[in-house]
Amino acid sequence: MRFQPIEKLMISEAAWQYAAASRIDPRLVFAHPEILENRPQSSRYYLGIALLSQKQVQQLAASVVGWEDGSRRSKVSPYNALKVARLYNSVISSIIEDSSDWSLENGYRNIIATMGIRLDGMYRNKIGQMAEELIKTRIAEWLGGQGLVRERVDSGRYLLHDDYEMLYGSEPDIRFDRHDKTVATIEIKGGKDPAGALERLGAMRKSFAETPAGCTNILIAGVVTAEMRARLDEIGVVKVFLLGDLSIDGPRWEEFLREMFHHIVRIA
Fold first, then answer.
1. Domain map of the chain by residue range?
2. pLDDT value, residue 124
């Protein structure tokens, strides 16, 4: 495996000389297309040293998601391996040149930092999925316990009394139809980070914008900020409930059931 000429791999002369003077194996610092071809999962290592995200790499070179999680079945092409290696090396070279005392330990810290960011994102997504499943399960179990389900077509479709139909999906998470008309929707946003509240609101706005006139839109949220509350009023969200209040039996859970199945979907 040859790194020369380094210009072909987008490794700067200054960064190369710095690594050589520090007696660091170049394979531990710079990406080589042969390494990426033969061991695609090594992309995660160089991506971390370069402090890049998978999305950035996809936009600038090629998608490496399948490389890193092992889901890719076909061999990485030499063309894409070279594109990705050149991207990693150009960024890594800049990082080394801009630092007066760069070391391999710095690179390892970068890897840990990018892993932390990725894990944080995965954790937040998992919270949202768990919140959605919790509420859907609680509603289905309550309806079944009250004898209000005429037929369970599958795990995502329930035929209720008085010709109502409950459908589980996404955008919205829960939809209630009657005579082919959507009567109500529920969006579940379980994230509790206030900084991401408006981002979650944006996704919800898109979902609610597609509901017909007269449809009642309900939000179940992990957190609601003052700014979010003001914007919810603008887009016609009738009722907002906090996830923590609906995850256990209590007055707010009873209020939600009464609002949902006595005043809106009138079957209880």
1. 6-102, 122-264
2. 56
